[in-house]
Request: fold
Amino acid sequence: MAAFYRSGLSSAGVFAGPLAWFVSLQTKYALVPWVCANKAQLIHPVTLASALIGLAGAWLSWRAYASSGSASQDPQAGGRPHQFLAMLSVLVALLFTLVIVVQGTAAFFLEGCER
Reply:
């Protein structure tokens, strides 16, 4: 398991970022009736947890990018596609994490119960 965290997973960000955004958005929509009825703000913890999942995917992809640096020098290793996928995964995860945070900031100004 330690080798997994050391070497990373090049496609983790591609899956973790969009999945975290999807779960965050659906959870927030599902919580609106309960939040309006109980006047309890649960949007912020959902935003924080989803952003952390997106950042974890970016971190795993970054670890894969950093560990594939030596493989790119060897023409037999085929390291360039892995580096590209890892960097693309980092950027996708960071983009979706930014979307999660921006959508979550609306809860600071709006309750969700306005009609």
Remarks:
- The chain has one domain: 12-104.
- The mean pLDDT is 86.
